[in-house]
Amino acid sequence: LLQVVRTLRAHRARTITVVTPYCPYSRQDKPSFLAREATLSSLFADQLRIAGANVHLTYHPHTLTIYGFYEPHMMFVALSGLDLFTEIFHRFKGMEHVVAVSTDAGGAKFTVHFSEAMDISYAIANKFRPGKDRANLLGIIGDLHDKKTAIILDDETVTGSSVINAAKWLYANGVDEIYAGVSHMKICRKHLPKLVELHEKFGLKEFHTTDSIPYPEVIKELPFIKIHSLAGRFACTINRLHYNQSVSELYKAR
Asked: Can you tell me whether residue 133 is helix, strand or coil?
């Protein structure tokens, strides 16, 4: 990618827009507590800038703090995913028995905006990670009284543990139907049986995600997992950027 950008710049390209449906290293925006980690998202932004890119377009990054690694030297455009989820779950709009649930505090703001667009209540899961690829759920903060349907939202999943733990907790506390919306399906094949178990035993009705990254072909054999294409959204956004028009007008939550 960097070599292509530099080559285009060397041959006098006026503007160069880099499109990454999944934002590389967006989880590495700062070191974790007591962990020796590099802020690789900052390194990636620096590499793009030095190579000669003008714009970086991506979809629902893990955190918006990475904006600071780009501005003012480059434009960073991050599609939020909010409009897609409100479109998918529009049938639940305004229903009192439905609650939107964030898998952790980091995704709380996104879930709050979703709940406001959907006119439903929200709750936030409280979790911690005792080790790599593990997430323990301490509980869920919010009013779940008379809530029979939950919509769990997350930006990405590798093991599925955050969604799975939240779903099991909700099911054990009286929620009958559970729906999930995850922007990036990074889950490994070996963890798919956990989602199947969640569907068969713990009330998971639908699991919605996108084609932002390649996914195991076996996922197509699981009817409760719905894959949504991002091609149209990226095409419209690229067109707007090319003609220097507003992007935000395209993705107002409906």
From this structure: coil
Element (H, E) at 79: strand 75-79
Q: Which of 109, 127, 194, 220 is catalytic?
A: 127
Model confidence pLDDT, tens digit, residues 40-51: 999 999 999 999
Active site residue 127: yes
| Residues 194 and 162: beta-carbon distance below 8 Å | no
What pLDDT is recorded for position 37?
Answer: 81
Tokens 């929620």 belong to 175
Question: For residue 131, is pLDDT > 80?
Answer: no
Nearest to 91 by CA among 110, 123, 114, 118: 118
With a CB cutoff of 8 Å and minimum separation 6, the contacts of 86 are 93, 114, 117, 118, 253, 254
Residue range 181-205: average pLDDT?
Answer: 95
Degrees to nearest 5, angle at CA 248 with 186 and 157: 10
